[in-house]
Design brief:
pyridoxal phosphate; single chain; ACCD_DCysDesulf; four-stranded antiparallel beta sheet; 373 residues; 12 helices; globular; alpha/beta
Length: 373
């Protein structure tokens, strides 16, 4: 097993790409060291290959009104829920003269028949990098019914990569849901909870087993950093691995954190924000309140960073599902810091240089149903 370090990645990338354009002085992460506003920065950051061919998603309008038939009993009495699959976004989001409240639902669950919506967004920028760097194996982890693990398994299988999924707990008697999908598309190992609690050690140990004596373990941040320097140069044709070779048949293993909680996962979510703020959709002037649930919190932070960088008057509220508010805020600060380091230097006047947080974290009204897995 050989672990590829950042310094060697940079050296290889320099050989691969040749001299950068003389009009820019190269930043340590590869983006040009010039002063950019938020939209210019986003244009450069999002100029890459994606797993999803287009960022488009369906947006439905759910209107609540007094029921005259089909209804649900709620705090306000009998209400009907009317789903408008082709809403009109012109004018104000709140229809003048309308007393019926409504909200919009971003239907990312329709992006793929097997890959849950926000999981696809978090893999959107990462999967093409794995292909470009000739990664052969992916190691990640999750709960027994992990939507993230299933998304990695399916997405890797579609691209000829092998996924190794470490699932917490014991194998269920009957395989259902995401557990069944993960079993069909990935290589499953059930891990005792005591071992799973030390996630990074568990992931690295399993990656060593997969790599054996000839494989190479790569980090998400390493290949992301190497890819960024390509934005100032012309890439050669064909897929080039992290050693600068067009052909290298040894196994290359990458570790993806639980829930894809890495800075590269933010990019696909920011791409969604850029799509949603188009003038024919939510626009850039309206005050929008986005409400999401939060497992690792990565999606919520990505939405908040996207709104900040694009100067949108949007507020992101995340309902915490899995941890304490201190843990979520710590993860938020880590992701913001990582994003600043890799992309957010020299932002003008606004954005991440001025904020302590981009998400409003709230607890659940009711306890999450306990699933023993």
């Amino acid at each position: 097993m050989k672990q590829q370090g950042i310094s060697s990645i940079r050296t290889i990338n320099a050989m691969k790409t040749g001299l950068c354009s003389a009009q820019f002085s190269s930043h340590s992460q590869g983006l040009p060291k010039v002063k950019l506003n938020g939209e210019e920065l986003m244009s450069k950051v999002l100029n890459r290959r994606w797993m999803l061919h287009v960022p488009d998603t369906e947006i439905h309008q759910i209107k609540l009104s007094p029921s005259q038939g089909r209804h649900r009993e709620g705090p306000s009495g009998n209400l009907s829920f009317l789903n408008n699959t082709k809403p009109y976004f012109g004018g104000e989001l709140k229809e003048k003269g309308s007393e019926d409240p409504f909200f919009y639902v971003v239907r990312d669950d329709l992006l793929h028949p097997l890959v849950n919506g926000n999981k696809a967004r978090k893999l959107d920028a990462l999967l093409p990098l794995l292909v470009d760097y000739s990664v052969t194996d992916v190691v990640t982890c999750g709960g027994c019914q992990s939507a993230h693990a299933a998304a990695v398994a399916v997405s890797c299988a579609e691209r000829g990569l092998k996924s190794h999924l470490l699932l917490r707990g014991e194998q269920p008697e009957i395989l259902t849901g995401y557990n069944l999908i993960s079993t069909i598309y990935g290589d499953i190992t059930y891990v005792p909870r005591s071992i799973y609690s030390r996630r990074m050690n568990m992931l690295k140990t399993h990656a060593d087993l997969v790599a054996s004596n000839t494989g190479h373990i790569l980090c998400c941040n390493d290949i992301l950093e190497s890819s960024l320097s390509d934005q100032s140069s012309t890439s050669s044709s064909g897929h080039i691995d992290a050693h600068g070779n067009t052909e290298n048949h040894s196994r290359k293993i990458i570790i993806i954190n639980e829930g894809a909680g890495d800075v590269v996962a933010l990019l696909g979510v920011i791409r969604l924000v850029q799509y949603l703020c188009q003038s024919h959709l939510l626009g850039k002037e309206r005050q929008i309140k986005l409400v999401v649930d939060a497992g690792t919190g990565t999606t919520a932070v990505g939405l908040g960073i996207g709104a900040q960088c694009l100067g949108l008057p949007w507020e992101v509220t995340a309902v915490m599902l899995a941890d304490t508010i201190d843990a979520y805020r710590q993860q938020e600060q880590k992701l913001i810091s990582d994003f600043r380091t890799r992309f957010g230097f020299h932002l003008t006047d606004h954005c991440l240089n001025e904020v302590d947080g981009v998400v409003h974290w709230v607890g659940r009204c009711h306890q999450r149903k306990c699933v023993m897995c």
